[in-house]
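Here is an idea for our session: we take a single protein and study its fold together. Once you have written the record down, we can walk along the chain together.
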Amino acid sequence: MRTLTIVALSILALTIPVAAQEERVPQGELFGGYQFTHLSPSLNAGGWKTAATGNLNRWLGVTADFSGSYKGGGYMYTYMFGPTFSARMKRLTPFAHALFGGATFGGGGSGGAFSMALGGGLDVNASRHLAVRLVQADWLMFYADGGTAKKNVLASTGLVFRF
């Protein structure tokens, strides 16, 4: 009887960590939504943003981020890549990222630049496979032709599909 009790308590003790584990981390996430762009000194534009993130574990993912902004016949496209750090909770998923890549400009002249975005945002988890990105805000920096533009902001909102 004593051996049976020890075996039963051992099995119970081994199952507690399994029961305490949280929900399954999605392997990937796909975001799509609206983006507001402010370029220094006073250009404001609207457009779209999409991003795909492959999650390596519960807190680290790799993101590919693409966007387009339009104003008065001009445009700006960005394509950036980098790590994303998430703090996954039951209802909320705050995140931060560092993205690096390029930007293409057109309209009153055209060109390309190195771009970097540092920022993050907050997702509200609606279900296991869907979240609403309340806000994503990024400081955006460009480097082209020996000059740097540092006072730029991207803000976006939309839906996140998780799989």
About this structure: The chain has one helix and eight strands. The chain has a mean pLDDT of 90. Residues 2-162 form a domain with the Porin fold (CATH 2.40.160.20). The two ends are 48 Å apart (CA to CA).
